Each structure stands twice: as structure tokens, then as C-alpha cells.
């Protein structure tokens, strides 16, 4: 039995936005499916949604950022958006986040989130009782060679300096993507005789990790 090779995985950091794409239809389904002719998106693209007329816009999508999945030439789904019972009237735009590849990455680990525990014990309980609470997505870290002129690494250091919540996208060799927001916590640098400068970037995930 074989597994998925880690080789050719890519790690990218959000660095801007692309051109807005016009939406011409949205299905009231779970998940919603949007039509946008020749949108050019790929699975894992993050889009900011705006100006959608109808309750599917006002109650669900407008002002939010969502992860694209199940793309065709002219349509795509938003896996975390349930439009059942809502109405699409007209219009809308989807503006994609643009990413820069972080070069020099040698390993990564994390995406190890787990649900928190909510104490549901009462006076009739014979032992402690719990239900699942919100998921704590945990940490994500990656090792890399220090490449001082690499735009991806420069963006990682800028995110650490600003303290801003920043998007990341991890793409596996089988084209599966994991998209999430994170705070860069630390970038310690290590050196050794007859070696190169390396660093381990530690981050804290904020919100959900969306696989597409």
C-alpha cells in the first residue's frame, strides 16, 4: 500500500487580491454553487463576496470570504455556505485572494485541531458528561532555509512584524488544498558549522481550516 508523497507540496501566503469576477447565478443549495463565466479560479482559491442581491447575499454571502471547491470552467461551489431556503435575485462579485509561494520550505506540521469539551454534567449524572464544543484548530509550523530575497519569506516576516491575521494555503501533490488564517508567532533562526541558516516558523491558526 502506498501513501501520498510530501514532495512537491507547496506553501503560499496571502499577499493581495486579483480582479473581481461577475456572478450571474447562485443556487439555493448546500453547498451553494455560483456561476461566473470563465472565472479562472482553482480549488482552494479564497474569494471575497459582495453586492449580491437577494437573501442569499444579505443573509449569507455578502461581506464574507469563502473557499472555492468543485470548480468547472464557469461554476464553483462554496463548501461552507448553505443556501437552502434563501433567494438569489441578481448581481454580485467574487474577488480572489492572490498568494505568493514560500520557497525553501523543507518540512511542515500541524493542522492538528480538536474540538473543545463542554461540561454537560448535572445532578443526575453518574459520571462526568461532555459534548463537543468549538474546534480549536491549533498550531501550524514549517521549517525552511533562509532565503533573504524570497518574496514569500519576506511576506512571512512582514506578517510577524505587523501581527496581522494572514491567509495561508497548503497544496498537496494530489491537488488537495488546506486554506486557513494564521498569526505568525515566531521565526527563530538557527546556524551550525558547515551549514546553512535555517528557521522554524511557528503560527497559531485562527478560525477554520477548509480542505478543498
How are the SSEs ordered, and which strands pair?
Layout: E1 10-17, E2 21-22, E3 25-26, E4 32-35, E5 46-50, H1 55-61, E6 65-69, E7 75-78, E8 93-101, E9 105-110, E10 114-119, E11 130-136, E12 139-145, H2 151-162, E13 166-171, E14 177-186, E15 189-190, E16 198-211
Antiparallel strand pairs: 1-8, 1-13, 2-8, 3-4, 4-7, 5-6, 5-8, 6-7, 9-12, 10-11, 12-16, 13-14, 14-16, 15-16
Which descriptors apply to this entry?
single chain; 212 residues; mainly beta; Elongation Factor Tu (Ef-tu), domain 3; 14-stranded antiparallel β-sheet; two-stranded antiparallel ribbon; 16 strands
CATH-defined architecture of the largest domain: Beta Barrel
The gross shape turns out to be globular
The total number of structural domains is 2
- Major β-sheet profile: 14 strands, antiparallel
Helix and strand string, N-terminal first? EEEEEHEEEEEEEHEEEE
Structural class: mainly beta
The helical percent reads under 10%
Short summary of the structure?
This protein is mostly beta strands and 212 residues long. It has helices spanning 55-61, 151-162, and strands at 10-17, 21-22, 25-26, 32-35, 46-50, 65-69, 75-78, 93-101, 105-110, 114-119, 130-136, 139-145, 166-171, 177-186, 189-190, 198-211.
Amino acid at each position: 500500500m502506498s501513501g501520498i508523497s510530501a514532495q512537491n507540496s507547496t506553501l503560499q501566503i496571502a499577499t493581495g487580491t486579483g480582479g473581481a469576477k461577475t456572478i450571474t447565478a447562485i443556487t439555493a443549495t448546500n453547498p451553494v454553487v455560483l456561476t461566473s463565466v470563465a472565472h479562472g479560479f482553482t480549488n482552494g482559491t479564497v474569494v471575497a463576496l459582495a453586492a449580491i442581491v437577494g437573501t442569499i447575499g444579505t443573509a449569507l454571502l455578502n461581506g464574507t470570504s469563502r473557499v472555492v471547491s468543485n470548480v468547472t470552467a464557469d461554476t464553483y461551489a462554496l463548501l461552507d455556505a448553505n443556501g437552502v431556503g434563501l433567494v438569489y435575485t441578481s448581481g454580485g462579485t467574487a474577488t480572489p485572494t492572490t498568494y505568493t509561494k514560500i520557497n525553501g520550505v523543507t518540512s511542515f506540521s500541524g493542522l492538528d485541531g480538536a474540538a473543545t469539551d463542554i461540561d454537560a454534567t448535572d445532578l443526575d449524572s453518574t459520571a462526568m458528561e461532555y459534548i463537543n464544543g468549538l474546534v480549536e484548530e491549533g498550531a501550524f509550523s514549517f521549517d525552511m532555509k533562509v532565503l533573504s530575497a524570497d518574496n514569500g519569506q519576506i511576506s512571512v516576516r512582514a506578517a510577524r512584524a505587523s501581527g496581522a491575521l494572514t491567509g495561508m494555503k497548503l497544496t498537496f501533490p494530489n491537488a488537495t488544498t488546506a486554506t486557513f488564517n494564521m498569526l505568525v508567532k515566531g521565526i527563530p533562526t538557527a546556524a551550525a558549522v558547515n551549514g546553512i541558516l535555517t528557521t522554524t516558523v511557528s503560527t497559531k491558526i485562527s478560525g477554520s481550516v477548509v480542505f478543498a
